[in-house]
Amino acid sequence: MATGILTGVSDLTEIRDAARAFRAERDWEKFQDPKSVMLALVGEVGELAELMQWLPAGRARELLTEEPLRTAVADELSDVLIYLVTLADKLDVDLGAAALRKIEKSGEKHPAAVVRGRAPASATWMTGQQHLSEGTDV
Amino acid sequence: MATGILTGVSDLTEIRDAARAFRAERDWEKFQDPKSVMLALVGEVGELAELMQWLPAGRARELLTEEPLRTAVADELSDVLIYLVTLADKLDVDLGAAALRKIEKSGEKHPAAVVRGRAPASATWMTGQQHLSEGTDV
Amino acid sequence: MATGILTGVSDLTEIRDAARAFRAERDWEKFQDPKSVMLALVGEVGELAELMQWLPAGRARELLTEEPLRTAVADELSDVLIYLVTLADKLDVDLGAAALRKIEKSGEKHPAAVVRGRAPASATWMTGQQHLSEGTDV
Amino acid sequence: MATGILTGVSDLTEIRDAARAFRAERDWEKFQDPKSVMLALVGEVGELAELMQWLPAGRARELLTEEPLRTAVADELSDVLIYLVTLADKLDVDLGAAALRKIEKSGEKHPAAVVRGRAPASATWMTGQQHLSEGTDV
Fold it and tell me: Which residue does chain D place closest to B43, by CA atoms?
């Protein structure tokens, strides 16, 4: 991985380049139109979900950070990232810059002073949110 | 975004820190157990899929890189990345390092000399793959 | 499967009951809170996506309806349905009735006279849609 | 919905036919190749996930079966089912029969006598499962 100050390399760029080289060496570029890469991303998201599906919510973090799940989790998170970076690459999106801008936009949309301590809003369950805000600890 | 040589900042770290600050300011950490963040990631993957679902495969790339889809694509790719980075953060995974290792592992599993030009293998459609390898251009 | 006129059994009810019996015999009900079943559904959707991800769009239907993919496709579609029926069961939703009502509602929202022959609308790519309507054959 | 004994109609067949008529009236068949329908299914799965993502696991069932979430849940479950039935239709799979066969197959794979009361197995977290089997109530 990029070692920050020493190399000055952005890790998303490094991952993008490693994924590009991987595809080029195998002549796989031709299979990777956007909808196909999107489905591959969905496949990896499914594998990540499977690792945690039956874990009790309250113990999921603990179990997922211990072996035997720990290594599998790192692998599946990686697979999702690799396809996400590939898709961004094919769609000419500077993913790192876009994500930082998106966090900024979200900050303006959900001002801390207004939403503090309430569940992240979703238009459809405003009422449910009121219940939740009384004292949820997931 | 990290400007590489100048700042030496890894962008995944920068996104992780911005997402952490965002949650802390809103006191939203308490809602974000791993299974909940995973479902949020699934929600964003669904929004990304919706942008491209009905596009003809052969024109998807062109249409997705032009407005009005271009901005929406960057936003949805970003949302997926933000939740992915958040999940990795909560599960103590160094996502950038893990992804680079995973590409290396995949390279050993699928040697270029063996798989070159054939569709990425999936055990279940080996026969289908033979058809495909004859000359697919997606 | 329900044989229609002879048995008068709704197949969604039959699947729901078979899934209930399956869980009860294994004492698995306790693991299946809604968010866990949702993640299991996501896992199966991922497996279904993997079967088709690298197929050329124009040949996907043909390859997916032939062996070796045919049996795998039926299995994965089934897995998605089983978890969907399970989730509806746990959330007290009459899935068959709800789906028929939803098709009716969609019919009112997208009158055939207005949308005929144009790509299913998605607010975000209205402009792209105009391009597409000129003569898409996916 | 099919009223069972009176009509003897299978509801999956009825939903399939209603979805077919819906597409035919709008001349939308041409957009719905398997990979596109698959992505539409992913989009709907994402919307369903969004409804429950931040709900505390222990209160999800209660909140999802009350308004304002109740109606939204029925709608999103329906959307997933409609695309699933559409995909099965296009791939010539008798979804009801396949699902009942799959439950039977799963029963043979996971005999009740062996797995009773233990978390549904996933090869990757066998050790975690041992912890869980001691007395989980999600």
Answer: D46
> What are the distances in angstroms from CA D33 to CA A36, B54, C20?
13, 9, 34
Buried b (16+ CB within 10 A) or exposed e, B65-90: eeeebeebbbbbbbbbbbbbbbbbbb
C99-135 pLDDT per residue, tens: 999 999 999 999 998 888 887 755 334 434 433 433 3
Assign B30 a pLDDT band (cuts: 50, 70, 90). Answer: confident
The model's pLDDT over B76-98, given as tens digits with 9 standing for 90+, comes to: 999 999 999 999 999 999 999 99
Selected residue of A32, A42, A48 to mutate for chain C interface (largest C Cβ count, 10 A):
A42
C-alpha distances in Å from residue A69, one per residue of A41, B85, D115, D131: 20, 18, 20, 13
What per-residue confidence (pLDDT) applies to C125? 46
Rounded to whole angstroms, how far apart are CA atoms D121 and A133? Answer: 35
Q: Which helix (DSSP H) or strand (DSSP E) does residue B130 occupy?
A: helix B126-133
> Which residues have a Cβ under 8 Å from the Cβ of D123 and sit 6 or more positions away?
none
C-D CB pairs within 8 A amount to 229
Using CB atoms, pick whichever of D72, D128, D137 lies closest to residue A63. D128
Give D89-109 pLDDT, tens digit per residue. 999 999 999 999 999 999 999
